[in-house]
């Protein structure tokens, strides 16, 4: 008796042999699509804000909010950016090189707390503003990861490549959690 699991496994195994192009039983290793040349880039960064809400009970029943506090020094930010990112592959070390960014971004606090009342007033958070972005970094890449190193440290992201022409990735997306716990996402389109 043939089970569905067995048939499925056989179909997948047969597909793998066709996809890998096994000639003489040996599979060829996939090469890394290179990030090389100029790319249009979009970037999104989102950092959550942890809030502590203290509530109280009214004398005649019901609840009220006594205070809302942010306990974060790096959270509560959102950034959206666009620009041009130029990758230059190293001539001596494969899959590594330098990257240069020129662009513009808008960022600030995703929650802007404005306090009013008899206890005082003030604002916690930063209004969203626009600023230019430029800089240089080194990078290294594999089939599944992109590591970007700045003077402040390194970040490693998951990367997925789109169409490849002549060994050069024509598009890619990469992202993940950065060292500060913020979610980052980038889209590259070769220009």
What does this structure look like?
This protein is mainly beta and 191 residues long. The protein has one domain (24-48, 75-190): Quinohemoprotein amine dehydrogenase alpha subunit, domain 2 (Lipocalin). Helices cover 9% and strands 55% of the residues. The protein has one helix and 14 strands; from the N terminus they run H-E-E-E-E-E-E-E-E-E-E-E-E-E-E. It has one helix at 4-20, and strands at residues 37-47, 51-57, 63-70, 77-89, 96-108, 113-115, 122-124, 129-141, 145-150, 153-161, 164-165, 168-169, 171-177, 183-190. The strands form four sheets. An eight-stranded antiparallel β-barrel has the order 1-4-5-8-9-10-13-14. The chain has a two-stranded antiparallel sheet with strand order 2-3. Strand 4 (77-89) and strand 5 form a beta hairpin. Residues 1-28 have low confidence and may be disordered.
By CATH reckoning, the class would read Mainly Beta
CATH architecture: Beta Barrel
What is the helix tally?
1
Give the tally of structural domains. 1
Content of β-strand: over 45%
Structural class assignment:
mainly beta
CATH superfamily: Quinohemoprotein amine dehydrogenase alpha subunit, domain 2
Helix content: under 10%
**SSE string, helices as H and strands as E:** HEEEEEEEEEEEEEE
- Straight-line N-to-C gap: 56 Å
Low-pLDDT regions: 1-28
Chain-averaged pLDDT: 83
Number of strands: 14
CATH topology: Lipocalin
Q: In order across it, which strands form the biggest sheet?
A: 1-4-5-8-9-10-13-14
Radius of gyration: 25 Å
Given the C-alpha coordinates, what overall shape results? elongated
Summarize the biggest pleated sheet.
8 strands, antiparallel, barrel
């Amino acid at each position: 008796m043939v089970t569905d699991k067995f048939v499925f496994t056989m179909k997948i195994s047969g597909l793998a042999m066709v996809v890998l192009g096994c000639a003489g039983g040996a599979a060829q290793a996939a090469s890394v699509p290179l990030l090389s040349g100029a790319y249009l880039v979009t970037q999104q960064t989102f950092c959550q804000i942890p809030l502590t809400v203290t509530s109280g009970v009214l004398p005649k029943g019901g609840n009220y909010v006594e205070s809302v506090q942010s306990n974060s020094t790096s959270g509560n930010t959102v950034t959206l950016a666009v620009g041009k990112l130029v990758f230059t592959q190293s001539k001596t070390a494969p899959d590594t090189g330098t990257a240069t960014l020129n662009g513009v971004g808008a960022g600030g606090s995703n929650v802007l707390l404005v306090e009013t009342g008899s206890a005082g007033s003030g604002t916690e958070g930063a209004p969203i503003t626009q600023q230019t972005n430029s800089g240089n970094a080194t990078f290294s890449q594999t089939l599944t990861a992109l590591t970007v190193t700045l003077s402040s440290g390194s970040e490693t992201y998951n990367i997925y490549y789109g169409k490849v022409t002549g060994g050069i990735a024509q598009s890619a997306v990469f992202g993940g959690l950065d060292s500060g716990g913020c979610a980052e996402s980038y889209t590259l389109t070769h220009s």
